[in-house]
Specification:
45% of the residues lie in helices and 5% in strands. It is elongated. The protein contains six helices and two strands. The chain has 110 residues and is mainly alpha-helical. 15% of the residues are buried. The protein has a two-stranded parallel sheet with strand order 1-2. The two termini are 26 Å apart. It has two domains: 44 residues, 3-Layer(aba) Sandwich (Rossmann fold); 65 residues, no CATH class.
Length: 110
């Protein structure tokens, strides 16, 4: 879609899988007028070990539902995403994440 279409829609929240976009959108004059950018509601989706909201279809979409809900409707999703992430990784991947690893996963970093 074009930036003109985004400006016309003026979304309140933007969810992206593009780390570069998430890091630079606030400095791009074309995007500064978009409500989501002005209000700091551009969110980079977690993607380790697979995407949480996009591809490939996997069990990662389960915590992705909580993550997305907490970004779009934070008052309705008060759960501790760190705890959900730790429990999910233990159950599905048999991995004990450190607090730093949990933060990195939730921040959408590789």
């Amino acid at each position: 879609m074009s930036i003109e279409q985004v400006l016309a829609w003026d979304p309140e929240v933007i969810v992206t899988i593009d780390q570069s976009f998430a890091q630079t959108v606030h400095n791009n004059p074309l995007w500064r007028g978009v409500s989501a950018v002005k209000n700091g509601r551009v969110h980079l989706s977690p993607k380790l070990p697979f995407g949480w909201i996009d591809f490939p279809p996997s069990v990662n979409r389960l915590p992705g539902l909580w993550w997305l809900g907490s970004k779009v409707f934070p008052a309705l999703f008060p759960e501790d995403l760190g705890a959900i992430t730790r429990e999910f990784y233990q159950l599905f991947y048999q991995v004990e994440l450190t607090p730093a690893q949990v933060q990195r996963v939730l921040a959408g970093r590789d």
